[in-house]
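stage 2 :: seqdesign
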């Protein structure tokens, strides 16, 4: 079986190399004038103006954070604070921003069972606002 598969691979390589040779021959037979005209067409396409981007936009993404693995082997009395810190750190990393703020609903959800018993998974929606006006 192995011998059969290796022979098929070699025949495939021959077919590919033959196809490459054909493509190289067709490219080399094009006149220099055709290539120049193709370059000029490309320049004309680049010169067309693109529509302006809207500077005031918000980017929204949803994530599920596994807090269980992030709080593994963390002291009970430090789990609440660490969970908040891990969520903020994750948001900074994903959204590429320095200023991250957490919603009060998320904060209440995290702390509702006390400092020791954090939820294992949290569904988080991150929103990045850009105001460059």
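stage 2 :: out
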């Amino acid at each position: 079986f192995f011998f059969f598969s290796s022979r098929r691979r070699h025949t495939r390589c021959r077919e590919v190399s033959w196809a490459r040779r054909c493509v190289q021959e067709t490219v080399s037979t094009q006149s220099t004038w055709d290539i120049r005209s193709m370059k000029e067409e490309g320049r004309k396409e680049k010169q067309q103006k693109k529509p302006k981007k809207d500077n005031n936009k918000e980017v929204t993404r949803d994530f599920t954070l596994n807090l269980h693995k992030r709080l593994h082997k963390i002291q009970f009395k430090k789990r609440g604070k660490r969970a908040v810190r891990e969520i903020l750190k994750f948001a900074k990393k994903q959204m590429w921003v320095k200023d991250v703020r957490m919603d009060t609903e998320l904060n209440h959800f995290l702390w509702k069972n006390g400092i020791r018993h954090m939820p294992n998974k949290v569904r988080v929606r991150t929103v990045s606002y850009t105001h460059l006006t």
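stage 3 :: structure notes
- The first strand starts at residue 57 and ends at 66.
- DSSP finds five helices and two strands in the chain.
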